[in-house]
Write a structure and sequence with these properties.
Layout (H helix, E strand, L loop, with lengths): L1 H11 L17 E3 L12 E5 L4 E3 L3 E3 L3 H13 L2 E4 L10 H13 L8 E3 L7 E7 L7 H10 L5 E8 L7 H8 L4 E2 L3 E4 H6 L1 H15 L2
Parallel strand pairs: 1-6, 2-5, 2-7, 7-8, 8-9, 8-10
Antiparallel strand pairs: 3-4
Bound molecules: flavin mononucleotide.
Flavin mononucleotide binds next to helix 1, helix 2, helix 3 and strand 8.
Length: 214
């Protein structure tokens, strides 16, 4: 009952919790290399994503996050590299504790530090950016990552997983964080489908990529 209430609360507050004060808590991240997959020499595509494991609403404990599953599907289809953004201080495994922390972060417009960064984005023209919807927004740690890198001159392709909110205007948040990038139309996948029916997700991803010309 408490969880149903929590989900309703999240959906109701989707449009109401974006405006916030300017508290920022970013620290300098470490550097790291993306995971490289075989790809044709002329294609320079990177899939960057943030995704959480642990207790998941209506699904139980998950060991691979929903967004991570979509990121992997995209990367395999395009032969792209992947890079997982991790919070310097991991988010709680417990669902409710995580929602409470995420709500406080959004309300204070925090910029929690991420663990590691990529050495250089120079070799990539196109960057797919994946995230779960948290309180109708991009998770604050992903905002820290985007603002730290800005991705100037790149084509950004957003994708998210969610519990019912869809993209919730997050394409705009990303465009604001990366003002000199071109942001394409995003994809929204219902999170539990990633765990329960990955074949259907693969087909949605394939249709979306085709529509974008990939
Ligand atoms: C902190 C938190 C806040 C959430 N807020 C929303 C929300 O506002 N709208 C929504 O549809 N789903 C919301 N969800 C559900 C997630 O977006 C969904 O389960 C997603 O697929 C999780 O992806 P991940 O496994 O990659 O982290 C929230 C989940 C968490 C943990």
């Amino acid at each position: 009952m408490k969880k149903i209430f929590l989900l309703l609360l999240m959906i109701l507050t989707v449009s109401g919790c974006g405006g916030a004060s300017q508290e920022k808590t970013s620290t300098a991240p470490e550097k790291n290399q993306p995971t490289t997959q075989a790809r044709s020499a002329d294609k320079k595509i990177l899939v960057v994503y943030f995704s959480r494991t642990g207790e998941e609403y209506n699904v139980g404990n998950i060991t691979t996050g929903n967004t991570a599953i979509v990121a992997d599907i995209i990367a395999k289809k395009l032969g792209a590299d992947t890079f997982e953004v991790k919070a310097a201080t991991p988010y709680p495994d417990a669902y409710e504790a995580c929602t409470e922390l995420a709500k406080r972060e959004l309300e204070s417009n925090a910029r929690p530090a991420f663990a590691k960064n990529i050495d250089s984005f120079a070799q990539y023209d196109t960057i797919f950016v994946g995230y779960p919807i948290w309180w109708g927004a991009v998770p604050r740690v992903m905002m820290t990552f985007l603002e730290a890198n800005a991705l100037s001159g790149k084509t950004i392709v957003p994708f998210c997983t969610h519990g019912g909110s869809g993209l919730s205007g997050t394409e705009r948040e990303i465009a604001d964080a990366c003002p000199n990038a071109k942001v394409l139309s995003g994809l929204a996948i219902v999170g539990k489908q990633c765990q329960n029916d990955p074949a259907a997700v693969e087909s949605e991803v394939a249709d979306w990529l085709k529509g974008l010309g990939y």
